[in-house]
Structures are given as C-alpha cells and as structure tokens.
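Supplementary Methods, section 5.1.

A reviewer requested that the exact input to the structure prediction be made available. We therefore reproduce it here, unchanged from the version used in the analyses.
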Amino acid sequence: MTPLGSLPNFWVVLAKPRVSVSTPTILNAIDYQAGLEHPDTQRVVAGIQNHDFNQMISGMGNTLEKITASRYPEMTALKHRLEKYGAEIAQMSGSGPTVFGLCQKHSRAMRVYNSMKGFCREVYLLRPFCLPANDRGLRG
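The structure derived from this sequence is encoded token-by-token as follows.
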C-alpha cells in the first residue's frame, strides 16, 4: 500500500436501495473469456496526487456494475437519478447494491442528497478526508 496524500475536495452522496446483492453470485457471473473493462487506476491516482477532481473521476469505473445492473435495474435508475440531480459522476460501489455520486460543491451535494431522499430510503451525505501520514502510523 502506498499513501496517496490528501484527496481533492468533494462530497459523496450514497444511495442504498432495498435490494440485497450476493457478491458471490455476481463474481460467479463474470465471463472472463469476454474480457473485463477496467477503470484507469493510474488516472485516478494521478488525479488524487494532483488534487484534480476531474482527472480523478475521469479514470473511475466499476467492472461489476454491468453484471449487477442487468439483474437489478434499480441500480441503473439510482445512478441516473444521481447524475440527473447534479452528481459529476455516479457509479455502483463494489458488487452493489449501494450507488454513489460525487460532487465538488457542498451546495450541489445537498441538492442531490435532498432529491434522492424521495426515491431511496437510505441516503447519506459525507465528505471524505485523510489523516496526515504521521497520524496513520506512517513515517515520512
């Protein structure tokens, strides 16, 4: 593991639908022969290191999203709603069912959060932060 430093400023809106997704079922559905689309991790890392939100999100992706969304269309609906209400990017977390949207501005994140509360029972607004390296037990 390599510390990346502090994150660019942004807010996260999490939306969790009332469905339960089995991670083993999703992982067993992967067609390795067809190949997998992978996010551009190096671009995400460079965006974090450069404190460039747009560069960071331009490399983001989730290989499992298509598989889960084909079984649970509400995932795609939530993702589209997050984007419709103003998230700069929206995607599924892990194998699902939680979907998240990222916003650079708190005011926009609040608008997305308040709009999503009408469509999803579990909606959360948070701001990620990083501890300085010496507070994480790292020397530098």
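The first strand starts at residue 11 and ends at 16. These observations are discussed further in the main text.
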